[in-house]
């Protein structure tokens, strides 16, 4: 790798980060790249507006849903050791696993947990429990509180619940708590030296907190919640790390399961399996899914990625095998995802020379909207779809199951769970773009803003997909 090219890349990412943070009220941002044996991290701004602590290259942050790739890696380690079989039902190992639809859990395979094809309808289920029994509490609550969206393997829907069940499955077969297992089998052999799983550990070193835009002034204000409950650990609620830690983990997957120190963490076969397509909805807004990894196509180049929301922050990990590159980033407002998308596309286009074709080239006026009208539901969410002035209008309503769910989700969302109606224009039958966005906005990571409808029967769509998550017609 040409050192000059890496120095140019480092300077460019620093300049773009500083400019975006100033223009968009992002207090702090940190990004790192490993490419062909060279590595750098750049940091900008403030990690915590309450204390004024600066964002540094080694500042820790919540990994959020990037943790899902770590959880998947832990499961595949147990497959390598012959302890788990991906194609056996989860109840083989976790007989207490049940949902509120009789027999539904019995049909879910271990593989379905990792490929987001399990159908567990628990996306906003937040039981509040701490400590060694937190995941057991989560699984116990599924039996009475959560049902299914679809038959296992039938559809794809981003699944926090599936990853948390996988975490509990790991606890049962290893005898260790999820945090203990994460520290022993990933943090240590990968070389994630500054990673932890609790606020108590994070406070011993420099750690960023999230911020939300003030609804009146748009100025960032510190979050009132640092982590989600321990029940959400395997889905991304509690693990904390640094850019260097994420780059080390990404490099392990780049190197066929061997860590930067030379330790084999995962077999080459399992590492490859995680990167292969396990389910494809064949819709531009829902990239093909591997195991743990989401496979984002940028033209002919595949970016293995996972982003992670935390209370007032967002992380990103990308591995690009054909270019021997890993990118990791964190920003401490939700809007930092726009900068992450901008930087990823700049790295692809300008640094790697990847041609990124337009994902959406036009909108249409001749699409029949009636198959999509109706009410769709998923866990504690209702989405009412109607036709207004020739466009689809969606109204999303949060319907909390109880006061605890409402408190936790409201804090996680920064104090508000309501949103104004959103209007969509047709791209083609079954695919819609939010009105008012330039079409090039959807070329990168923000393709998730597109909405699709699936499985039209008797003139009515059965499912709506937004942000990779399904809701089923009520």
Secondary structure elements and pairings:
Elements lengths: L2 H22 L3 E8 L2 E11 L4 E2 L6 E2 L4 H14 L29 H5 L5 E2 L12 H12 L1 E2 L11 H15 L3 H13 L8 H4 L8 E3 L6 E3 L17 E2 L1 H12 L13 H8 L18 E5 L2 E10 L2 E8 L4 E7 L4 H16 L22 E5 L2 E8 L2 E8 L4 H10 L9 E7 L2 E4 L16 E7 L2 E7 L2 E5 L1
Antiparallel strand pairs: 1-2, 1-13, 2-3, 4-9, 5-6, 7-8, 10-11, 11-12, 12-13, 14-15, 14-21, 15-16, 16-17, 17-18, 18-19, 19-20, 20-21
Helix pairs in contact: 1-10, 2-5, 2-6, 4-5
Description of the molecule:
This protein is α+β, with helices and mostly antiparallel strands and 474 residues long. It has two domains: 357 residues, DD-peptidase/beta-lactamase superfamily (Beta-lactamase); 104 residues, no CATH class. It has eleven helices and 21 strands. Helix 2 packs parallel to helix 5, helix 2 crosses helix 6 and helix 4 packs across helix 5. GO terms for molecular function: beta-lactamase activity. Keywords: Hydrolase.
Which tags fit this structure?
hydrolase, alpha+beta, Beta-lactam-related, Diverse_Enzym_Activities, EC 3.5.2.6, Beta-lactamase, eight-stranded antiparallel barrel, seven-stranded antiparallel sheet, single chain, 474 residues
